[in-house]
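SAMPLE LOG
Freezer: B-3
Tube label: C17
Construct: single chain, 130 aa
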Amino acid sequence: MFSADEDPVPFLACVKKTELVMRIIMSPTFPRDRYDFVHLCVGIDAFREEFPKIMEGTNYSAASGLGSNVNSEHPQKPKIVIAGSGFSDDEVDELERVKYADSVTWYRAPTTNKDIFGPDTDLTGIGKNA
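STRUCTURE (predicted):
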């Protein structure tokens, strides 16, 4: 369980379209004290290109320009990757085969527009690699 003394858990979102993820992240119910949105990949190609560089700690440019790692002197490696609901099962499988993808916890966003980040949301331990 999350403790107020802990740093927010860094996560990366990989989506096909930015509208829903931005609405969720900008929502007043998004638990910023618990989760740090470090990077956004829009599409499989962006994830394939950017995720390994993030995990290796090498210099990279975020094509989306979004996330707390943008212009950060101390970019964080994500511990969680959220795959957007627009991806098919085969596409999520493809994302999960990218280098270093097995070193994070994966979470698949639901296919509803419901705000998944309510006050009791705890993404740690959820996903295939938990």
